[in-house]
Structure formats: structure tokens, C-alpha cells
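Sample A.
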Amino acid sequence: MRPIVFKQNSLRYPLNELLGTRSHVRLLRVMSNQVDGPLTASDIAKRAGLTVPGAQKALERLFRTGFISRVGGGRKHQYEIRCSDRLMQTITDLFQTEKNRYEQLFVTIKKEIKNLTPLPHTVWIQSLPKEIGESLTLGLLHETRHLMDCVQQFRKILNQLENDFDLTIELEGYTKADIFDLNMDDFTALFGVMPAKDASGQKQVKNPLTHREKDRRLRILSRNLAKAIEHDASLLRRAKEHIDRLLTEGQGTATGDLVEWRDIIDRYSVHRLSRFFTSSSERANRLRQSNPFFVVLSLDERTQLVNDLEDKDDA
């Protein structure tokens, strides 16, 4: 970076300080659209992918700008954006636009996948770009006889998306015989169900689960989910946004349940919602099968959620 010729005053150019480092951008992004309410430095650091000492230093610098506020005292300091400030409102909108752009890309890809004939078994995100200019890589699984034609169809669609989003998208085609060299656990499904490897030595489910056992496990997950929501209320917003996206796409017979979930999230308090998750009522049992909160969890949150099941040798 070339040295700065002269300094600019912070009143006229506050964005120099606010957005001047990657750590600042990451912290502001977390506080803008990933959480609701104040967070501790350690919580923000975890979400932003920073070390706690690094996050604390960056938060103190941002606090001195006056654009974020500090709540509490001692070791229990929490930080939040000063939403009353017009500049911070605009920055929050900027991060929301960034998020919407990312989500719109994959909403469009999912829609286009449904136009492929014959439909592939699975399409997934194989790798995401970590630097500007790197490519997004998708994987596609199909039968050998249909693979080449499906890849060519999808490639034409992706060419247009590359122009629309100024992005390079690579597409890798696979048959079932090809997937044994891939670590499927690192991929995110866009369409279909991620295939399971049938390799020797891999733990297999010996007997299918009974309806009673499935219901018991779902109740355990729902109980853990209720605790997660009480700890992190941003899950409510994430679930609402997920439902809204699905409703704009159209979900056929599932639309009714989604509308019902959206109404519940809007009207129920956190404690009432927690009780509903583990209720034995007919309505709760029916809607538990389509709980939208499970989908919006991060990998770490899902891992935490299934801890109670691991003792039962559940995957």
C-alpha cells in the first residue's frame, strides 16, 4: 500500500476508520445483520472469524469513533451499533444488500436447476471463492448416460449468471462411482440430497428407525433448538428470512405449513415458542416435521444441537 500523502479529517470522512480494515468490516457485518441486540467481544469474534484479543482491540477502536455503543461494565461489556445514527443505518443497509446479493445468486441457481432435464440427483456448492477473482465451484451428480448432456445444459445457464453477477462459476460433473474421492461433508446441497458413501468400514445404520424413535429424536433436537433460540434471538430473524425466500419461490403443498410457521414466529414470544417446539399437541407434532429453524443453523450450531444424540450412536 502506498503511503498516504495527507490526512483527512474524521468528521468529513468517518468511513476511512469504520471500513478501513477487514476486522472492522467483519465486526460491523456481524452487528449489522447477523444478530439482534448487543453481543460480547468473544461472541462477536466467534461469528466474525477473529481472535478474541483482535476483536477486542478492533471493537475499542470502533467504540472510540462513536458509531457503536458499549453496554454493561467490567468483563461483561457488550457492543452494538448505534442504529439511531443515519450513517450507521446506511452501513446496515449496505451489509443487507451484500447479503441479499449472495442469497439471490443461489435462489436463481436453485430455480434454474429445476429446468434441467432429466433432473440431476444432486447439485451442491463444492467451494466458495475466498478472494476476489476466484471461482465458485458447483458439483452435479447424475447417471452416466445423462451426465454429459445435463452438464452442458447447466453450463449454458451458468454462462448467463456469470455475466449477471460478474463471477466465474466452475461446474464439475460426477457419477456415483466418482464421489468416493470427495469429502461430501464439506459441501452444501443446493438440490436433492447429498449422497452417502457406502465405503467399507463406514458406520452404517443397521435397522431403519421406527416412527416412535424418529419422534423421540426430533423432540430432543427441538428441545435443544429451544435452548439455542433463548441464547441467540437472531435465529428468529434468520428463520423469517428463510421462510420469506421460500414463499417467494413457491413451495406447492408445503406453502400452508410455511405460512403457519411464519405466523407463529411473528406472534409467539421466545418462551412460548420454546414450549411449542416440545409440545405434544397435534399441531406441534405436525409442524415439527417442517421446522424452519433447523435449516438456518450454521454447521457449529447443528453440531451443538445433536450432542444429546451422539451418545445413542446417531449420525
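Sample B.
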Amino acid sequence: MNWREKVLNFDHIGDLREDLTGLVFDIQKFAIHDGGGIRTLVFLKGCPLKCQWCSNPESLAAKPEIIFMANNCIDCGKCQGACTSGAIRHAEASNAGLIIDRNLCTLCGRCAKFCYAGAINIIGRYLSVPELMAIIERDRKFYHQSNGGVTFSGGEPTAQPEFLNAALEESRRRGIHTAIETSSFVPWETFAPILENVDLVLTDLKHMDDSEHKRLTGVSNRLILGNLLRISRLGVPIRIRLPLIPGINDSAQNLKETADFVHQLNTLQTFDILPYHRLGEMKWRQLEMEYEVSDLTPHTELEIEEIAKFFRLRGITVKIGG
């Protein structure tokens, strides 16, 4: 019996449903770090975790959002004139720019439509499975040439389980390799039917200490670790990723516990070290959210190589940068 047959029984989706939609906030073409080969990377909105260093804060809320990029604003006033709910106004202080009242905003998108400078955008759009598949199919020739495929990320893609599973099933039916980038923080009864249509699982190990994991992400790591062990026992290929955060999860103790856990995963393909960067910090401000780790200094290349060596000496295949 292969691993797909060992996953929990479930009802197959059947024909594509045009009424089933998912909330997508980005689709990246020609991704090369998210599952092998050239891939289409589909970002689904909504996440049960709130990692302090998240580089995609626009993925956290399970609803569309408005984002304001003040540096792009040319102060033309078009957005204010287009807003019918009175949600946009100039700050009283001179040269302070625009203020968007998110409580008044109806997310109608008129401001973004009239913003010629691209300073205002609505993050998140609803796509049906056929609409999404039409986008994925455009790059089919690249999948075949490079052994690539489609990867569903987030946010947390399993937070939209019905849409995700429908898209995965249709992708596999068309012979497209499928992968998910998931926190693995999902009940097994939800996870199991999704895994039936997944060729590869990519999961971050953010911290091995449960109390620290709760402090840093808002949730326990016990469900995550348990799910990874179950996935491995089923024979599902896994790539583990370590978002390497200075002073947070780079201690000798945490690195050792991470290596010990990874050794239990007999379907591990690679262990990816993802060095900390601050590329997402600006987006936190654009969403009027607090970035709590702005004082961190990224590791040097030498420090990263030493950490990679630590894992390699324990027989773990390491890739830096995913």
C-alpha cells in the first residue's frame, strides 16, 4: 500500500466547482526555491500563526486588506475624491501625508483604481479553481522542462482547506507536481485529505521549545511536531526549513534539538536554512502593524556557514537560502 492509500479516507471532490473560491494575495511566476524546478507559487491569505519576523504580514488576516505605500504617494488627491465612505483624509500636520481609516474603509477598491502612482492597493482577491488553474497552466512547459510544478503557500494554505484541496487535486489530475508550504499547525482530520494530493511538504521549524514557540508565534509547536512525524511515517517527502532568527532560535541548545528532531524524519529531502532578513519590515508599517524585531542584526555569512556545518556534521543535507 503506498502512502496515498494510507492517508485517511475522504470523499473526492469530483468535478471542478466554479462556485468554490479561495482568497489569494499573490501569485509568483518562475519561483525556484519552493519545491524543485521552476514553479508557480500561489499565496493564500490567512494564518493562525503570527511570527514576529514574518516577511509577508499581508498574509495574516483571512480577509482582503488595504495597504498604503506612502513613499509612492504623489499627493494628487485622486484617492480621496474617489472614496465614497470618507475613509481617506489628509493628516492635520503638514507634510504628514494621508490617513486611511480602516474602520470606515469598505474595501471597494475605488481608491486603488484611481491611484496612478500605485500607493494604495487592495491585498487579496477571490479566485475560483478554474480561474486559478488557467493561471497555473500558462507555465506548464516550464514545469516539464525543469521538473517543477505548483506550490501553495501563505499565510497558511491549509486554512482554506476545501479550496486548497480542490486546486491540488486538479493540479495532480493534470500531471502537475504539487507542493505546499505549511506551518503544519492544522488538525490531522483537515490535513490528511490534503496530503493525499501533495507530492512534497515544506515546513518551518521555528523553535523547539514549546513555550518559546508560543511567545514567538502565538501557538504551541506540539501539533506541528506531531504532524511532521505522522507525515514522515506515511512516506510523504518533506523539506524542513529553519528561519534562522538572531538571538531567538540560533542557540546551541535549540540547534541541537532541531537536529535531533529532524533525524526522526525518514522522508527528509533537505534541511533549508533561511537567514533572517528585514525585507518585510516596511510592509508591517504599510499595514499599520508593529514590527517587533526591528532591532535584530542579521547573521554574517560566516556565522551561517558555521551553523550549516553543525547540521552537516550530523549527517543532515543542508541548503542555505531554501
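B remarks: The two ends are 32 Å apart (CA to CA). Confidence is low (pLDDT under 50) at residues 1-15.
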